[in-house]
Amino acid sequence: MSEIEKKPIKITETVLRDAHQSLIATRMPTEFMLPIVDKMDKVGYHSVECWGGATFDASLRFLKEDPWDRLRKLRDGFKNTKLQMLFRGQNILGYRPYADDVVDYFVQKSISNGIDIIRIFDCLNDLRNLQEAVNATNKFKAQEGRGEAQVALAYTLGDAYTLEYWTSMAKKIEEMGADSICIKDMAGLLVPYKAAELIKAMKEVTKLPIQLHTHYTSGVASMTYLKAVEAGVDVIDTAMSPFAMGTSQPATEVMVETFKGTPYDTGLDQNLLAEIADYFRPYRDECLANGLLNPKVMGVDIKTLLYQVPGGMLSNMVSQLKEQNAEDRYYDVLKEIPKVRKDLGEPPLVTPSSQIVGTQAVFNVLLGERYKMATKETKAVLRGEYGQTVKPMSQEVIDKVIPGEERITCRYADLLDNEMDKLEGEMKEWKQQDEDVLSYALFPQVATDFFKYRQAQQEKVDMTQADTKNGAYPV
Ligand SMILES: [Mn+2]
User: Fold this and answer.
1) What is the model's pLDDT at position 70?
2) What's the whole-number mean pLDDT along residues 401-414?
3) 263 three-state secondary structure
4) CA of 188 to the centre of ligand 1 (A)
5) Could you tell me the pTM of the whole model?
6) CA 55, 61, 66 angle in degrees (round to 5)?
7) Can you list the alpha helix ranges (DSSP code H) found in 367-419?
8) Residue 3 neighbours by CB distance under 10 Å
9) How far, in Å, from the CA of 366 to the mean position of ligand 1?
10) Per residue in 148-181, pLDDT tens?
11) What residue ranges in 140-216 does DSSP mark as E strands?
């Protein structure tokens, strides 16, 4: 490459979202994040991923924090850096499909509270489940002067997932009005030479920037980035070293050093990165000491490559088998997983399809007869409610599990009535800000518990002040 062909690789920093979601169950609190924001803002990252995914649920449920308040505080601190979130298409950040008015309003509030880039994915890669979120982003972009829609394809392996599949998806994503494409390899299945092939093929069919997101689970991630960068990828996702590797992303400092002095030089300052790493390192030690960070997730899990199953799905499966005193059936279930996946149209294995396939495989093995019992979610997948799968589903399984039932081929959300008014009606006694309705929409019970907690905290403060002269401090 000559001087003219310089192509600095851009970096999305994940330490405030995926890195702690993948390593310490999403437990990093806002108050720990804020003191380092000013330094992170000076790095020159392409973006900082800091919201969405499991952070919303974990904030309300475990940290007793308002996720919207976290976003506003991060926005205040990051004056020069784009903020990025992860968004599950029609499921938003929750676990059921929502009507379009909720998707719209969530996108609007995410952008108006500070998000720049919304990474949107669907567990079946059914683009119809992403269109509303993309449209909403484009609509509010004009209004808020901020907002980019990035469509993420869940990367997976299987007969249906050929280069032709990925390139035709890339073309469709460009047509649907997205600003960029992400290849989201949640399980670390994308190996280096395959990554080069994939990126090269996609670059040939689309002008949209391509971002690669992977996890170190199977041990190949930094090599995969190297080959992807050489093949033309534009942005890679990395995490500051104290929260890198294992089930998280490759380390930011390592990737920066790798490309130093090459046409791909990121230009990021290693001294500044070192200061930031110094801030996160004692917290990592603390998490190791209190057990939040299990050294087990820091190694190479080669089973991920052998069985093509995400690490998190394997650990779920082990705990389900333990509960049933059936740990000896581990390998039977492992063999059953690809069969169930095939029956259900060979979907990628990512939340929630990973849980659906995994749980059904456990049932099939433990009950001694395949589909003797099917979960509610398996039935919904077979009815077409989650969307269209890349391959047809097994007719035999359809006939056994949902005999005579109607199956849908339309976009499921087309069947849903608007629901914002109803949701607001249900929770209005707790509403202190417009965003509270959305917290409630996603996690009705958890949000209500949080609202009660918030109110108790507020009342405690007021009562303490009111009663100071009597010396009474009711709690
Ligand atoms: Mn991820």
Assistant:
1) 98
2) 96
3) coil
4) 9
5) 0.93
6) 65
7) 376-383, 395-401
8) 6
9) 31
10) 999 999 999 999 999 999 999 999 999 999 999 9
11) 148-154, 180-185, 210-214
Q: Which two tokens mark 43?
A: 């790095």
Cα–Cα distance for residue pair 266/244, rounded to 1 Å: 18
| pLDDT band (50, 70, 90) for residue 310 | confident
Give the count of beta carbons closer than 10 Å to the beta carbon of residue 400.
Answer: 16
Please measure the distance between the N-terminal and C-terminal CA atoms of the chain and give it in whole angstroms.
Answer: 68
Q: Enter the tokens of residue 399.
A: 């006939």
Neighbouring residues of 268: CB distance < 8 A, sequence distance ≥ 6: 11, 43, 44, 45, 252, 256
Other CB atoms closer than 10 Å to residue 146's CB: what's the count?
17
The first and second tokens of residue 82, run together, are 């784009």
Ramachandran bin of 232, using left for φ above 0, alpha for ψ from -120 to 50, beta for the remaining angles = left
Residue 469's pLDDT is: 46
What integer pLDDT is reported at residue 3 of this predicted model? 54
Q: Is 245 helix (H, G, I), strand (E, B) or coil?
A: coil
237 CA to centre of ligand 1 in angstroms = 9
Kindly give the distance from the C-alpha atom of residue 185 to the centroid of ligand 1, in angstroms, as a whole number: 7
3-state secondary structure 155-180: CCCCCCCCHHHHHHHHHHHHHCCCCE
Q: How far is CA 330 from CA 247, 334, 336, 361, 366, in A?
A: 21, 6, 10, 11, 10
Closest CA to 241 of 23, 25, 32, 41: 23
Distance 229 CA to ligand 1 centre (A): 19
- Encoded amino acid at 250, one letter: P
Residue with tokens 């049933």: 324
Please write the tens of the pLDDT for every residue from 220-229: 999 999 999 9
* 290 and 32 Cβ atoms separated by less than 8 Å: no
Residue 2 Cα to ligand 1 middle (Å): 34
Query: Three-state SS for 264?
Result: coil
Residue ranges and CATH numbers for the domains of the chain are 10-295 (3.20.20.70), 309-409 (1.10.472.90), 420-470 (no CATH)
User: Tokens for 3?
Assistant: 């001087």
Q: At 15, is the secondary structure helix, strand, or coil? A: coil
User: What is the Cα–Cα distance from 265 to 269, expressed in whole angstroms?
Assistant: 11
